Structures are given as C-alpha cells and as structure tokens.
Amino acid sequence: MKKYASLLLFALLLNGCDDGDLTVDTIDFDEVTSTSCDPLTNTLIYKLKPQESLLLNMPAGMIIDEPTPDNDPLIYTIDNDKYRVVYRAYDGTVAKENICGAIPPKTPNVTEEWVALQGGKIEITTDAVYKSPAPTDGHTEIIGYNHNIIFKNITFQKPAGPQVEEEYIFGDYLTNVTPVVVSFLEPDNAKYCKDFDNKKVYNNNTSNSLVIENFDATNLFKSEATPVGQPRKGLINSTATTNNLYYRTYTTNLPTPTTNYYCQEKTPTSPIVKDTWVGQAGVTNVSGIIEVTTTNVLKVYTHKVVLKNVTLQKGNSTFKLATEFLLGNVTVVEP
C-alpha cells in the first residue's frame, strides 16, 4: 500500500513541475519601456517581458512627430489587417530577434496568443520633449516626441474566450529627433535686401537661414544714431505683411552669394525648402520683439538687429530662440 501511495505522490509532483509554459490571466506591461523594430517607420512597436510580448502593428507614418491638440488625439481603428494588437506568451525567454527578425529563431514557442478583434480604437496623444535642463541663454530644443498610446473598447480573443477592456494603457513611446538650434557662423554679418518693396533682413549658414520679410525699414532702419539704451522697436508679424519672420532649412546648399537667392523680386525655386518655421506674432513689451540699435561713422550706418523672446512654430511644434538673439549687423552706406 505504501508503494502505491509513493507512486501517486511522485506522479502529482511531476504534474506540478514548471515546464516553462506561462499561464496568463491579465496583461501587465506598466513598467516596461516600448520600442520599435524600425524607428524610421514605426510599423511595429512592442513591449517585452521575459516570457511575454505586446505588439502594436500599424502602417508606416501613423506615429507623427507633431503635438496633438488638447483633447484631440489621433485615433485609428483596429481592423486586424493594417492595425493589429497582439499579446503572446512563450515557453522561454523572448528577445527582439523573436519579434523583429526576418527569420525569427525557432524558440521560444508561443504558448498563448490574444488577438484584438476588429472595432477597438488606438488613441495616440503626442507632446514635444524638450532638452532638460534648458540652455542658460533661454533657447529651447525639441529632442523628441512622446506618444502616449491607449486602447479604447478593445476586445481580446483569448483561448478561453473574449476579454473586453474598456481602456487599456499601452503607455509611452518615444521618438528622437535632431533638435533645431539656430546659430550662424558669421553672427555679425547680416544681409539687407533694400531694392524691392519686400525688403528683407537675414542671416544664413550654408543650408539654413533666418529672414525677416516685409521688413519695416522705414521705422527701424533710419539714417540716424539711436540714443544709448533706446533702440528702435518693432514686432514680429505685427501685421500679415510686416516683419514676417521665417527660419528655413534647405535640401541642398544655398547659392553664393546668397543675395542672388534672397534679393530677388521672386525667390527662386532652387534650392528646395525642407522645413519652414514661422515666428509667432509679437506682443508689445512681452515677446516677438525686434530691436535695432544704430551707430554711424559719417555716412556709414550700422544697424544691430536683435530679436527678443521670439518663438518659432511649425505645425503644433514650437521652440524659442535665445532670449536676446543677435540676427546680425547690417551696414548701410548712404549717398
């Protein structure tokens, strides 16, 4: 009798041994950082635990590096074709190669899979991420975008049957970008296009420029020295056609000299503009201020152009120039 009891106990112990399979009741990836197989396309974003994965599959370009308006996230519908959400459990340690590899390893094996059914929503709220601590001169740099991803009214088809989640927080996904930092190789050497109605003051490097178009030269570039500590003042975008500020980057280098490009009645189409950031409209004594200090030696006038508390915007993204940003010195010789 003791022999049979011992055999029964041994059988129970064998049945209770861990064979590596993972039994799952709930999905919990709260403390796991998300990543992507290809950060250029972001078609497959995933989270990994030792024996679990949570996968979000979307078409390229659906993760957009642009802040979303308040309470207005991007919304995509799960269709099990272009938009898919899948949870998997494994019988061993899972790694990036199991998710992203062109030929995934044979092991570990998938022991359980939950597939989100059609109809659930993917909501993405995006915010710009700024360099921290901020530079001491007051300028700001966007170093990336944080995409907070939430699944709404999602139904997972489990082996044991469907499981409905009114809200499941996938979490944050961070994309990195090269920050825009405005500075010039010759900060003292600004240029002035004065022979057209659309007067311009600008400075540039080989493939970027900061230009004030429709420059109010009548009030800001007078042929008389300014009193000490009393610069002439104007506002960025004070009207739709006055002091319009643009920061532009180009796909190729600007021509030399740049006056052949800027000081034309109609700006040439080459080089092609890559990105355009627009100066936000100024507020008197607060922001978006143009200050011009003028000195002279006989008929040679030097106008020092400084931009104060200026913010540049592209879409919903914004960054600030240095609190006092030197656009440059413009030399004008009067007859």
Q: What features would you describe in this structure?
A:
- The chain has 2 domains: about 15-175, no CATH class; about 190-335, no CATH class.
- A hairpin with a 6-residue loop joins β10 (about 190-195) and β11 (about 200-205).
- It is built from 4 helices and 20 strands.
- The protein is mainly β and about 325 residues long.
- It has helices spanning about 1-15, 95-100, 215-220, 260, and strands at about 35, 45-50, 50-55, 75, 85-90, 110-115, 120-130, 140-160, 160-175, 190-195, 200-205, 210-215, 230-235, 245-250, 275-280, 290-295, 300-310, 310-315, 315-320, 325-335.
- The longest helix is centred in the first third of the chain and has 15 residues, at about 1-15.
- The radius of gyration is 30 Å and the shape is elongated.
- The strands form 3 sheets. Strands 1, 2, 3, 4, 5, 6, 7, 8 and 9 form a 9-stranded antiparallel sheet that branches. A 7-stranded antiparallel sheet has the order 10-11-12-14-15-18-19, with no helix packed on it.
- The model is unreliable at about 1-20 (pLDDT under 50).
Number of H/I helices: 4
Report the portion of residues in β strands: 35-45%
Mean pLDDT across residues? 90
Tell me roughly what share of residues is in helical segments. under 10%
Q: Largest beta sheet, briefly?
A: 9 strands, antiparallel
Q: Gap between N and C termini, in Å?
A: 122 Å
Protein structure class = mainly beta
Give the overall silhouette.
elongated
Radius of gyration: 30 Å
Domains, number: 2
| Unreliable residue stretches | 1-22
How many β-strand stretches? 20
**Order of secondary-structure elements:** HEEEEEHEEEEEEEHEEHEEEEEE
